[in-house]
């Protein structure tokens, strides 16, 4: 789970790649760098992420069977909400209990 600002969006084959500036990592099981690519396995714009907007994202690390691909994947049922101070408060409160 992290707060990020969408920098760009690009369609790559049958997927969408977002370049994201990682603002605040809240809970993560793999290291995050200040700029990451977040992949969405469709080109329909779901979830709808706008360039320049900030979001609270819950994505997962995806490593393929051959271990040649390691990326951050935001699935269609993943969590992507516009960032607000309320969202930050809720995440910080949840982190104390998890």
TrEMBL record:
One of its GO terms (cellular component) is extracellular region. It is found in: Secreted. InterPro entries: Netrin_domain, Netrin_module_non-TIMP, TIMP-like_OB-fold. The lineage of its organism: Eukaryota, Metazoa, Chordata, Craniata, Vertebrata. The keyword Transferase does not apply. Keywords: Disulfide bond, Secreted. This is ATL5 protein. Coiled coil: none annotated. It comes from the Eukaryota. Pfam families: NTR. The keyword Iron-sulfur does not apply. Residues 1-98 form the NTR domain. PROSITE patterns: NTR. The gene is Adamtsl5.
């Amino acid at each position: 789970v992290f707060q990020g600002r969408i920098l760009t969006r690009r369609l790559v084959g049958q997927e969408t790649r977002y370049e994201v500036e990682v603002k605040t990592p809240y809970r993560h099981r793999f290291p995050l760098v200040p700029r990451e690519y977040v992949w969405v396995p469709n080109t329909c714009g779901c979830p709808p992420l706008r360039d320049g907007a900030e979001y609270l994202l819950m994505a997962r690390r995806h490593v393929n069977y051959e271990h040649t691909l390691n990326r951050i994947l935001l699935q269609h049922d993943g969590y992507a909400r516009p960032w607000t101070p309320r969202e930050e408060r809720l995440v910080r409160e949840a982190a104390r209990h998890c």
